[in-house]
Amino acid sequence: MTTVQSPPAPPTAIRPRVVARTGLYAVLAANVAVVLYFFFAAGFASNALIVLGRLTGLAGALLMAFQLVLVARLPWLDRRIGMDRLTSWHRWTGFSVLWALLAHAVFITFGYAESSSLDPVNQLIDLAETVEGVLRAVVAFGLIVVIGVVSARFARRRLAYETWHFIHLYTYVAVVLAFTHQVAVGTSFTSSSAATAYWYGVWGVALGSVFVGRLVLPLWRNWRHQFRVSAVVPESHNVVSIYITGRDLDKLPARAGQFFLWRFLTKDRWWQANPFSLSAAPDGTQLRLTAKAAGDGSAALRHMKVGTRVFAEGPYGAFTAMHRTRPEAVLIAGGVGVTPIRALLEELHGHAVVIYRVASDQDAVLYGELAELAQRKGAELHLVSGPVTPDKLAPAELSRLVPDITDRDVFLCGPPPMMNAVIGSLRELGVPQEQVHFERFSLAG
């Protein structure tokens, strides 16, 4: 198999994640400055509560637009930061939007009530009935509250992903309603032609990013590459590999360690999107994913027919050699988390130590491939099996297996409990944070 290999970044290079994160912060800070300028230029209301209401409303609008950019799945950001971190930032930004808009509603309502003879409840009703756009804002806020509630951890655990995702789509309805409210009554929006142009630009970029990243780019790539299942290979009693072919796969910007959201276009699966990592480095002719039967969807892959059309969204993820800071590496896999690790080993240059943690030797899927690849690459391979306790990847054990671990990049993938334990061990051993690379793929769905 011919693979495309890339040399590691020199240790002195600025880390791609730092560049992207700094760029996001700088863009957000610049927009805050512009918003404040237009806010002050529009002048103050006589009522301090109304002033606070307008300011929190502008903050909520800007955060809502920023939130859309975070989940637009723009390739430049995704490759440098990773979908898991972007999704996490999106989630916390969403809660900030909720609190900002709640403050906006309270301050505005009480502010106008202070200037009239109405109580706050009747004042809100009066505003909704008499002021253009306020009723739309109330509906938008109600939708955001519902979305915020179902996005809380206690609710997410009880909802199927498809149900949560369908409810979450109402975010876009809330965005449109909030924008029309801002157009109708936003003092800062209407204070000058420059302010109007600015806000149209902000919402245009935010919604345009989502449109391009979530719709146009996936549709274009699938039309161009025409993905199909070319082979289905059982790896064990509960693990299967799916080989995907298509047109011009050498033009697909996929790298070892990344994943796709796969939809297999059969009558009973077309509506399900599952995140699976590439289990082999892309070679320009085919892609391979390897999945464990963790649910009905992944179990059904074993019976997938050759020739089935596939709709693939991606590639996604920052778990790649792009983020290397050292010439040598440690690759730590747990269970089926070996799939991106095996792909990474195929692409990496320099000496590597591979540690594969499984409950028993029989669970070590792809081990034969991994051993052959390690021998060809001159890498060390350690199969660590046994029960969870005692911890066989504790600091002392890791130090024994890799004495120079603090001088290496560490790539880690596996079940969340194992990853948390290993991250703790690496921290105790003094491995610098910038040398530890992982991605929590459960957030990608």
Automatic annotation (TrEMBL):
**Keyword vocabulary terms for this entry:** 2Fe-2S, FAD, Flavoprotein, Iron, Iron-sulfur, Membrane, Metal-binding, Oxidoreductase, Transmembrane, Transmembrane helix
> Which Pfam family, giving just one, matches this sequence?
FAD_binding_8
Which segments cross the bilayer? Answer: 24-45, 51-71, 92-113, 133-155, 167-185, 197-217
Q: Where is the FAD-binding FR-type domain?
A: 222-322
State its cofactor: FAD
> Where found, per UniProt?
Membrane
Q: Which InterPro entries match?
A: FAD-bd_8, FAD-bd_FR_type, Fe3_Rdtase_TM_dom, FNR_nucleotide-bd, MRET, OxRdtase_FAD/NAD-bd, Riboflavin_synthase-like_b-brl
* Membrane topology term: Multi-pass membrane protein
What's the protein called, per UniProt? Answer: Ferric reductase-like transmembrane domain-containing protein
Species in which this protein is naturally found:
Streptomyces coerulescens
